[in-house]
Amino acid sequence: MSTLLEVSGVSVSFDGFRAINNLSFNIDEAELRAIIGPNGAGKTTFMDIVTGKTRPDEGQVLWGETSTSLLRLSESQIARAGVGRKFQRPTVFEDQSVEDNLLLALKKNRSPFGVLAFKKSIDDAGAITKLAEEIGLGDQLTRKAGELSHGQKQWLEIGMLLAQDPQLLLVDEPAAGMTLAEREHTTDILKKAAETRAVVVVEHDMEFVRRLDCKVTVLHEGSVLAEGSLDHVTQNQDVIDVYLGR
Amino acid sequence: MERTFLIKNPSVMIFIALLAVFTIAVTLLSEGLGTGFVSTAMVKTLGMTLCFCLIAIAMDLVWGYCGILSLGHFAFFGLGGYMIGMWLMYARTEDIVIASLAGADLPPTDQEIVDAIGTQIFGVVGSSEFPWVWAFADSLLIQLILVVAVPGLLALVFGWLAFRSRVTGVYLSILTQAMTLALALYLFQNDSGLRGNNGLSGLQNIPGLAHVPQSVLSVWFLWASAVALALGYIFAAWVVSGKFGSVIRGIRDDEARVRFLGYPVEAYKLFVFTVTAVMAGIAGALYYPQAGIINPAEVAPIASIYLAVWVAIGGRGRLYGAVIGAAFVSLLSSWFTGGRVPNIDLGFYTIEWVSWWQVALGLSFVLVTLFAPKGIGGLFDLLVRRQTPDRHGADLGPDTGSLREKEAET
User: Which of A94, A101, A124, A150 would best serve as a mutation to test chain B binding (most B beta carbons within 10 A)?
Assistant: First the structure.
């Protein structure tokens, strides 16, 4: 299987603080990967670099079969290239209905003129209904997103990510603030998504990571400390020292 | 499609109907075509008010829907006015010059006519040469194109520079103020080519229509303004009701999120900024023939601030709110500043409304922003029992222009 995203030798510092230090990371086209690490390990900065929010000082980020560099693209171009991101706190458009939120995310022409001429087809409505049911919001389509509960907003955001149909999903702490049943549902959605695309999950919660049952990358001080199955990395002495042993 | 659009936007039908009733009523009561109950000056004031309503819709689009607090849209309004003003002044002066030279022994050459027009127009600034900006002043068609092209192009260049650098919030507002101030200062110069602080005058006299009395012309312009306002309202309602409206409201509330969905946010802002500048230019081109005179003071920074005040008092984020705000505040303003409001004698001090009106306006702006963010438009919510969400004071997005709790609908 070929590599979808290849991050190599990336470093970035903020006011002298090295947030990412010579980080290298690869992920295949259909793979589920968990990234763990203590606070300040550079997990969020890593996502910022891949999505174009932060420009690294050195290193390269290559994307897809043609190995195009993501560093020259803007955030919206990277998103259109197929990178979807879910933020730590749920960020949905609170003044708009669940349906409008999903419609915004649905993979369509993103240019102003294209959007101006856009008309919702029956297929689009069907796709939205199907997605809404998948994320458990089938009967909430007309509700304003701001009225949803915290967990529902998290799911709506996951639904928006799926609607974008990205090749790479970056998910920041999806299980935060969720009940046990909701967590299980979220795990299922992520695992299913990873069958056809690459999914990177940043998570603090070890139990959740164990449930994902996938390859784990441990970050520490901006670089990769260990990589492998969860059991493998938890037996690594370095990992125990900096993270688990505390 | 058309049917669903109107069903989804009932305010459009109501608005057009009310506007039609208003325009017909004023026509029937006018001096020119009706009973004479409404004076010609009043018809002109009402026509100009409709132009203000049109630019208020533009402001609502750019601020209320897209979250860009532009404090420079009157620059585009003024530019539209200058563009049509150049033709009006040139063509009318040409008529006068030809009439006065008709009695001469030798028929005047074309060059003599042009020179005489130049002397007439630019005498006040000590010149008789036509500056390059007047190159097309003799062509109505080209000047009409410039009415939309000049404001549109300025907005395009300014917006491209500003949005590309990710200037947002209060910094962008200051930048737009600087733009309109710079334009005003430039126009104030005599060698700007647009007659400096004299501005362009006599614009109420439409060339070729000298036989039509002002009382009738004023009604024509009222109708033209009403049609432009109606079209502007339909256009704005169409833009904001579809997915495009969804995107720009997303930009207002959470710009970064829209970007991560793959939308080129800067292109959207530029689009909205430019389109609204064109709307402002058209409103200005209809306004100044009714006002009769345009000078650089019209594009002073304060004018654009007033525009924001109108929209805020009317209720931003709803098109009829902007229209109500512009009509209500500008009519009230002309009533107060016109010296027709009786002064209040407090014994030790007399409140003269001509100077105290601005204080009252400023105070009501502050009060509306603090206690009734929905503005006058919010009164309609009482009728239809629209409710605001209870978000414990939280806005609907992280951005500075985002909708506030009290402005939103559950």
Answer: A94
